[in-house]
Amino acid sequence: MYQDVILDHYKNPHGRGLRDGQAEVHHVNPTCGDEITLRVRMDGTTIGDVSYEGQGCSISQASASVLNELLVGKDVSEAQKIQETFLELMQSRGRIEPDDAMEETLEDAVAFAGVSKYPARVKCALLSWMAWKDATAQALSGTAAPKESA
Amino acid sequence: MTTTPSAGRALPGLLDTEAIRKDFPVLDRLVHDDRRLVYLDNAATSQKPRQVLDTLAEYYERYNANVHRGVHVLAEEATALYEGARDKVAAFVNAPSRDEVIFTKNASESLNLVANMLGWADEPYRVDRDTEIVITEMEHHSNIVPWQLLAQRTGAKLKWFGLTDDGRLDLSDIEQVITEKTKIVSFVLVSNVLGTVNPVEQIVRRAQQVGALVLIDASQAAPHMVLDVQALGADFVAFTGHKMLGPTGIGVLWGRQELLEDLPPFLGGGEMIETVSMHSSTYAPAPHKFEAGTPPIAQAVGLGAAVDYLTAIGMDKVAAHEHALTRYALERLVEVPDLRLVGPTAAEDRGATISFTLGDIHPHDVGQVLDEQGIAVRVGHHCARPICLRYGIPATTRASFYLYSTPAEVDALVDGLEQVRNFFG
Lengths: 150, 425
Prior knowledge:
The structure holds two protein chains of two kinds. By secondary structure, chain A is α+β, with helices and mostly antiparallel strands. Chain A has a single domain (4-141), classed as Sufe protein. Chain: A. Chain A has five helices and three strands; from the N terminus they run H-E-E-E-H-H-H-H. Chain A has helices spanning 4-11, 58-71, 76-90, 100-106, 119-141, and strands at 23-29, 34-43, 46-55. The longest helix of chain A has 23 residues, at 119-141. Chain A is globular and about 40 Å long. Chain B is α/β, with parallel strands linked by helices. Chain B has two domains: 5-36 and 314-424, Aspartate Aminotransferase, domain 1 (Alpha-Beta Complex), CATH 3.90.1150.10; 52-312, Type I PLP-dependent aspartate aminotransferase-like (Major domain) (Aspartate Aminotransferase, domain 2). Chain B has helices at 5-9, 17-21, 50-63, 73-92, 107-120, 145-154, 174-177, 200-210, 229-232, 257-262, 297-313, 315-333, 363-372, 385-391, 407-424; strands spanning 30-31, 35-36, 38-39, 101-104, 132-136, 157-161, 182-188, 213-217, 236-240, 251-255, 273-276, 281-283, 339-342, 353-358, 375-376, 378-380, 396-400. In chain B, helix 4 (73-92) packs across helix 11. Chain B is globular. The model of chain B has no long low-confidence stretch (mean pLDDT 95). The interface between A and B is medium-sized, with 17 and 15 residues.
């Protein structure tokens, strides 16, 4: 479960810290107290930035770091496809053996395949991805108030 | 780190765990292929001895029938077994009368039952907008949320005792917290996170001064120490069966007889009535008044077997075993670098539940790496999130022991934590 890739992201997270964005969400995992505050900045249809702060286990923290690395700079439609692929992998209960196509889509996020065997930890891995999905929907619909970093 | 198992095995007061463990089939299980199970999650639920498992099977194989209804042999035998379990529980907690023992499905239902009764009661028990409810910051969610609901519905004010830095109740302002307006004081006897054993007498004395009722959540006490409801001096005591070697689905509420007579029922249905017409009903006397519908019959009978098992060993001996083990565990755990105990650091007035944090390593990660070594602990906020908020931590890792726990298992935990540190260090 604890792949080196996951531990690397946990110890040296990418893009951590809150920066400007059009939408901010706060998601928690009530069973364990993991939480994340996440902001999305859209540049047109491109994911300009995903910034975040939170506390939680290595899985939830590493997952947020991988998300940042993977989605920033991508077009939103492609990012949504990556998110759906990651969701599918995490809900597979260990039954999906990632193939080359999946590895190409998910890059480092493939390392979380082993986590899907542990139902209690799947929510940890998905916390930031669900927060991103929520924040992106708000940013795109224009309903959210802009958030500025202090 | 070197382990010192010999020091642990020589502890005075330990039970003959080698013999006891033979009664618990699950303790022989291997997990993750070849790891011997080290079960340290007893505050969540206990394992069950063969005597309880056999009783459950025998009940269904030989006696199964609904209770208090039929005139046939099985119905009478099942009723005798169910009511026999009530006698056993009554004796176990030294209840003055068997009719004061109400079977529920768990401690949460017992606590909710009292909260609801007080919302519907007549004077002098009624909780309404001019009255106050008192709880503490170390309650399980099951002794917080029912009172929040009651306060919201009635307009009553919810107050609570805070905690000291070393994990005990701060009773310095007891006269301001429990006042003439207080109708009910509900608190935990032994904390499921901190392990703290609370000073019942001081709280009960103040509550009685102002005429408030007292409800004690004994979920983490009944399995581990002599529980004497008369000595406690409370009006209600709640606990659950599955933490004390019994099956899930069976809980207990003990209440003083005159209160049970005066207070209104909680759930309506079969068994709790005297007569029913389309216009109104009258109710059966307690305890049946509070046991609507088919009760958890096999589970009650199983709890009776668990009570027999514990009584045969002796609750004073169980308590002594756990005290010795707690003292040893606290000594060993302070050796672990970066480990911070959350709760009292001394074994006095403390149960065998030990929560801690380990540096910056999240409890989920601690629990996962321990699990890979076969060690089962609980991680998270243990349904008592206000405690985590109070101490400014997101969650804790919790090891909790029982009568079959051994010093070698304490050593395994300490070794396991060393591996966790190596892994995430």
